[in-house]
Amino acid sequence: MSTALANERRHTPGIERFDVVVVGAGISGIGAGVHLKDKSPDRSFVILEGRPDIGGTWDLFKYPGIRSDSDMHTLGFEFKPWKAEKSIADGPSIMEYLRETVAEHDLRRHMRFGERVVRAEWSTPTATWTVRTQRADGTSGSFECNYLFMCAGYYSYKAGYLPEFPGREKFRGTIVHPQEWPEDLDFANKRVVVIGSGATAVTIVPAMAESAAHVTMLQRSPTYMVSRPDRDAVANFLRKILPDKVAYNITRAKNTWRQQLVYKRTRSNPDQIKMLLLGGIQLELGGKYPIKKHFLPRYNPWDQRLCLVPNSDFFAAMRAGRASVVTDTIETFTENGILLSSGEHLAADVIVTATGLQLVSLGEAEIFVDGDQVDFAQTRTYKGLAYSDVPNLATSFGYINASWTLRADLTCTYVCRLLNHMRDTGTRQCTPRLRPGEEHMPRRPWIDGFSSGYMQRVMHLMPTQGDREPWINPQNYDKDKKMFRTGRLDDGVMQFT
């Protein structure tokens, strides 16, 4: 019997014991399970999920048109080829991909559903995390582990972000937030106003426009949009002549390189990219719309996420007269619509508040180290995945300028390397600690140079970056590959005891 299995069986009565607790069964948590089985097979682990099913985002959101805004050759896992024709996939297709992954790697037996993690307490004398959960029936659960891997995403599952709208109570129609979409919402032949201009709004508008009388996207300011086919011709051709894994790896490398190239170009020559994006919209809409008013943001490309428009569906709905864009601010809701600051009134039967997410850190769990609650705003981020003076804990957080899973896969690789190093060196604790003088490093935001409101609203609650490795969160795939795959583990900052 392995040491891990022995430990699992010799747990405290009423408390389940594992080497690793993974929190969350979405893309990050499922990926963590596969990587642990493959790279650290001697470690026992459990995946705790507060919801009744896998999928995270893709199980939670039910709004019309729900889809990826990254290609599935990079949003998919590095170990499981995406084989479907469409590379921009809808929610049900992504859920099927995740279910296949769980089944192929026998992960279901490692999962506990309905276990929402609310608190985790670290004890240095025992080198143990005690993880407390709450269940829907009001009972609680307890789990012990040596290493805690937080894969719970970055936003609150309780509710989305909803600003105060004057006069909201006057409106006689239906108001719905995309995060709480009712299955029985009927919007056929109804007038719809979608408040927002981000990826969710850009997805919902053309989907609702297929049956609504008309859909108006109401935005305070524009967002950059780019049209792309929902199929990757190169990927589909390569799959015909090469084994699936080889074709997938080539396509993944191609698309990752392209994502990084475009992002770097937005940093070095933003005006050029800006003109290319606007030129593409001009071709889509011709002279029917004042492009600069409705499609020229006040910021540079990739200061916020670009919105993907698969097969030009958003612009096709506009050309057909089924959708429109209004750029204005809200004065007040009325009984039958929205009065704008300009004096214009938008009639509506249904108002969709696509106003964004409410970001949280570590799945909203309270974290304690030796009895003291951790204030993560006072910590420094270690490689964008761990925190100064917090032992045996990592967080999976993807890219904001590329596909989430690219970084989630790298993070899992690093965590497994760390676990294997501790096994090989006979150590039980690994803690990032500032070296002498580093406490005076400048404090930079955890996500730097990204101006989206959903980030800015909570950045003061997040850990900060320094000005040198490893106290940085570069959001750069090339740098992360070196740091996570081949960088020194015993680097003088990560302390092993």
How is this structure best described in words?
With 497 residues, the chain is an alpha/beta fold. It folds into 2 domains: 3-158 and 358-496, FAD/NAD(P)-binding domain; 168-230 and 269-353, FAD/NAD(P)-binding domain (3-Layer(bba) Sandwich), CATH 3.50.50.60. The protein is built from 14 helices and 25 strands. The protein has helices at 3-9, 27-39, 57-60, 72-75, 91-104, 199-209, 233-241, 244-268, 270-285, 291-295, 313-319, 404-425, 453-456, 477-486, and strands at residues 16-17, 20-23, 45-49, 111-113, 116-123, 128-134, 140-145, 147-150, 174-176, 191-195, 214-219, 225-228, 307-310, 323-327, 330-334, 337-340, 345-347, 350-353, 366-369, 372-373, 381-382, 386-387, 393-395, 430-432, 494-496. The strands form 7 sheets. It has a 6-stranded mixed sheet. A hairpin with a 4-residue loop joins strand 16 (337-340) and strand 17 (345-347). Helix 6 packs across helix 11 and helix 7 runs antiparallel to helix 8. The radius of gyration is 24 Å and the shape is globular.
Task: Just give the CATH class of the largest domain.
Answer: Alpha Beta
CATH architecture of the largest domain: 3-Layer(bba) Sandwich
Poorly predicted runs: 1-11
Q: What is the distance, rounded to the nearest whole angstrom, between the alpha carbons of the first and last residues?
A: 26 Å
Report the total helices.
Answer: 14
The number of E-state strands comes to 25
Q: Main beta sheet, described?
A: 6 strands, mixed
CATH fold descriptor of the largest domain: FAD/NAD(P)-binding domain
* Side-by-side strand order of the widest sheet: 1-7-6-5-19-20
Task: Kindly give the count of domains.
Answer: 2
* CATH superfamily descriptor of the largest domain: FAD/NAD(P)-binding domain
Q: What is the average per-residue confidence, as pLDDT, rounded to a whole number?
A: 92
* Helix/strand/pairing category: alpha/beta
Helix-residue proportion:
25-40%
Shape: globular
